[in-house]
Amino acid sequence: MDKSPRGLGDGEPLAKAQLLAAPLRWPSEKALAERPKFGGRKADEGAEHLGLTTVGALLEHLPRDRREARTVAALVAGEQATVVVEVRSISSRPVRRRGMRPLVEALVFDQTGSLQVTFFNQPWLVKKYPPGTRLVLHGSYEARNRFRVSSHAPTAEEIGAGDDVAHYAAAEGLSSTQILAVVREHLAAARLAPDPLPGRLRARHRLADMPSALLAGHAGQLEPARQRLAFNELLYVQLDLLRRRARRAEELKAPQLAPAQEGDLVGDWIAQQLPFELTGDQERAVSVVLGDIARGHPMQRLLMGEVGSGKTVVALAAMLRAVANGYQAALMAPTETLANQHFATLAELMPGQAVPIALLTGSTPSARRRDLLGKLASGELGIVVGTHALIEDDVLFSRLAVVVVDEQHRFGVRQRTALDAKAVGPAGSVAPHVLHMTATPIPRTLALLGYGDLDVTELRELPKGREPIATHLASGERDRARAYERIREELRAGRQAYVVCPLVEESEALAARAASAEYERLSAEEFADFNVQLIHGQMPSAQKAEAMRGFKAGDVDVLVATTVIEVGVDVPNATVMLIENAERYGLSQLHQLRGRIGRGEHVSVCICFGPKESERLSAFSTWNDGFKLAEVDLQIRGEGELIGTRQSGMAAFRFASMPEDGELLERARLSAREILEADPDLLLAEHVPLREAVERARGSLLAPTIPA
Ligand code: ADP
Ligand code: MG
């Protein structure tokens, strides 16, 4: 090995590394595994706390970039920066979403101003950082004094301004200066750092080799060093995910659903029975899905489609192919309203009476249910549509081959996968093909991490002839009067309207009460001349179904609703939506709601009541594109709260940070693919270190979305 300090991948010399006063003795082989000595029990405890138990770990403890440290007043919205601040107050707040730990919110300040910071998933910080604690926070500044933290450490010492010494995250009993001294002592060992990446890959991605990256990092060239270590992390996760997926595909069998010999049900249906032409995206998705299910291994595909992009048709194509091959298919939806609607739509889109189909929900009468279960078990029923009722133990299929999970993010992992166990054949060796569908777009970075073991297909194109929806923000009495007049205009022209009542988080009962009051008021006053109908989650299902039927048939002009209409409801003649207290909803929920209009040939309008200065609402009124909104959402809320984040274990990354490292993630994904194509089990000699690194990283980095 070359004994002089090496250059980085792009050939930049390591000038700074040479300035360090470390004696570059050639270290012994065991050097990396040794335990560094920090001198004293307190310091050793601090080191333990930081995980600095071997020289190797110590060398991966990169300093933070001091040059980026800013005063609060100098922060610029959207930028990554480090601030050194003091805690003024700190408290925790419960999170609405189930299973999530409380948020910790702190008010911090320096001599130039104060910041509001939120820590996700670390409730213990309230105790760890009491008022008066000095903190180094690294993260991004998001305007209006909010700071999104990606890493943090208490300052165990006052940091003098202007000195050029590397600054390390410290701990109680162990200062940055002490760490620096010990790093210097062991720096030479960096040359022995094993490099799991084959040289060929490093060269292609212009990444530094490990020894150079570590030396450069401690010499202050942080970004290339951090990138190199972040790339490792991301690559391990992607390798793990892709191998898991490959193994599942190999080991599990699924029915081979080939095109039928004569009179192809699916082809005929698409060509002759559908009242419209498929969009290009739909066509591609149908052919990918049909390709998947023609293989003998289970499909696990996520169909991510813009609201109104027509996902149902793609699902139906797969279900019909199952039936054509003598198998059964099931479609599971998160709500009864949605299941009812799917059932009606499918019956409508279905080719003649050829396919026996039934609906099974919690409110299916027991006699009917018994009859239905009998027909499922005997194979007489081809397609069943339903809710969670489908996954109950006594629901047995004769030949289940295709499962569709609509709005899959509404289900827990266990529910999503429960239908897998109902496939034909010995348990554990045969699984059905599964199509997961979602209209809540997941930014690609999150999709690659959280759903890395699913194949992803996107539907972005909307059916032809759809008019974009205009969204207006409104507040005050004048706006309100104008909004109702606008709605009446639409109604007089024969269109229909939704009025969405304020979200009441505390209880369904309160939400129902608020909606009922609004319904009373509107039907007596603003819409006295029209047919107004109420729908909320607390109504008996038969009544809900009747309300939806009336609206769908056009008998009802105005539907006053709670968020029960959030997903899936499809009435193309509805062209106006009024949303009350829109600021209470999240961006993706707003987008879902708005997706109920703009489904037909007429121009649609969405009117949102809420504070005009709301960042979220202004983004909502600017963008119609769900993918764009999901990205904005990620920026506004921070990664911790988004779907997929928890499953992806993103918080466990030490060097990578999302979404900033999205591009690095793409490269890691690509590399993982290429490596596995050549060597699926990482058995080649040059891949052995990589395999070991993946195995070490597993568990600490990732919990899979779909159990392997
Ligand atoms: P989503 O993706 O939101 O679930 P749906 O599958 O409910 O969308 O489809 C929305 C509406 O668009 C339905 O009324 C459906 O019949 C209609 N639709 C689907 N595909 C097309 C198409 N290619 N052309 C015209 N209308 C379509
Ligand atoms: Mg849908």
Second CATH tier, the architecture of the domain at 265-459: 3-Layer(aba) Sandwich
Radius of gyration: 29 Å
For the largest beta-sheet, the strand count, sense and barrel status come to: 7 strands, parallel
Task: Classify the beta-strand content into a percent band.
Answer: 15-25%
Tell me the structural class: alpha/beta
Query: Total helix count?
Result: 24
What's the end-to-end separation, in Å?
A: 41 Å
Can you give the helix content as a percent range? 25-40%
Ligand species: adenosine-5'-diphosphate, magnesium ion
- What is the name of the CATH topology of the domain at 265-459? Rossmann fold
Q: What's the average pLDDT?
A: 81
Are there runs of 5+ residues with pLDDT below 50, and where?
Answer: 1-26, 156-164, 639-651, 701-708
Tally of DSSP β-strands = 19
CATH class of the domain at 265-459: Alpha Beta
- In what order do the strands lie side by side in the largest sheet? 9-10-8-11-12-7-13
List its salient traits.
24 helices, binds magnesium ion, single chain, binds adenosine-5'-diphosphate, OB fold (Dihydrolipoamide Acetyltransferase, E2P), alpha/beta, Rossmann fold, 6-stranded parallel beta sheet, 708 residues, 16% strand
Short description:
The protein has 708 residues and is α/β, with parallel strands linked by helices.
Please tell me about this protein's structure.
The protein has 708 residues and is α/β, with parallel strands linked by helices. Among the domains are: 65-167, Nucleic acid-binding proteins (OB fold (Dihydrolipoamide Acetyltransferase, E2P)), CATH 2.40.50.140; 265-459, 3-Layer(aba) Sandwich (Rossmann fold); 469-623, P-loop containing nucleotide triphosphate hydrolases (Rossmann fold, 3-Layer(aba) Sandwich), CATH 3.40.50.300. The chain contains 24 helices and 19 strands. A seven-stranded parallel sheet has the order 9-10-8-11-12-7-13, with helices on both faces. The protein has a six-stranded parallel sheet with strand order 14-19-18-15-17-16, sandwiched between helices. Strands 2-3-4-6-5 form a five-stranded mixed beta barrel. Strand 11 (400-405), helix 14 and strand 12 (433-438) form a beta-alpha-beta unit. The structure holds adenosine-5'-diphosphate and magnesium ion. Residues 311-312, 406, 568 line the site of magnesium ion.
